[in-house]
Amino acid sequence: MIFTIARKELYMMFCSPLAWLLLTSVQLLFAWFFLGRLDAFLQLQPQLMQIANPPGFTEIIVTPVFALSAVVLLLMVPLLTMRQFAEERKNNTLTLLLSAPVSITEIVLGKFLGLTVFFLGVVSLIVSMFLTLLAGGTLDWGLLISGALGLFLLICCFVALGLYISSLTIQPVVAAIGMLAVMLGFWMVDLVISDHEGWIYYFSIFKQFELFNNGLVDTYSLVYCTLFTVFFLVLTIRRMDGERLHG
């Protein structure tokens, strides 16, 4: 049933003009920034040739594009997660969903899976741009894979948080603003703290992504992202389960 709900969510997203508009917009933005970094690399190439171990395509192009992608997806995810529970509640279709012979866990996980598969497609499009660089050089596959993994885990965290906030309100716009406010709060904390500064560092979601983007697949970061995602999925399940029980 989880996969059935996920397929339904994917179908509804791809039938929505908003999803296509977002996909087109962000892909154009990523392509523009990618070409800008490629141009910068070509201009730096004479100087790089004089360095013993110069940075390559991956360090100069791939890593900055992944970093930009994290910020762009921070703005994109709330626009899709806000539609999950808040919009259904506003349109009075949530009652039908909750009265169906399906567990709340299956509903929440189905919606989560549908959204993450959608954003996995976004990550795949980004990676496909990088693969074109193979025509003119080589890539650091370890750095590329760790950056893509970090971006996907960050998306999972965003989606789980967005689903929970969407489950709290009847207004999709309020859900989107709430999600943005929370994630911008995380981002501002990340901007003001320095590397490894006290306990705040270990709770910074963007610092964990930064480690992945620098090629460091850290066990703590993997556990952090997993627990962050599971925590908010469980909160969403409990919230919706309570709503079903109280009608």
TrEMBL record:
GO terms for molecular function: ABC-type transporter activity. It comes from Nitrosomonas marina. Its main location: membrane. GO terms for cellular component: plasma membrane. This is ABC-2 type transport system permease protein. Keywords: Cell membrane, Membrane, Transmembrane, Transmembrane helix. It is found in: Cell membrane. The chain crosses the membrane at residues 12-35, 55-80, 112-135, 141-166, 173-193, 219-237. It is a multi-pass membrane protein.
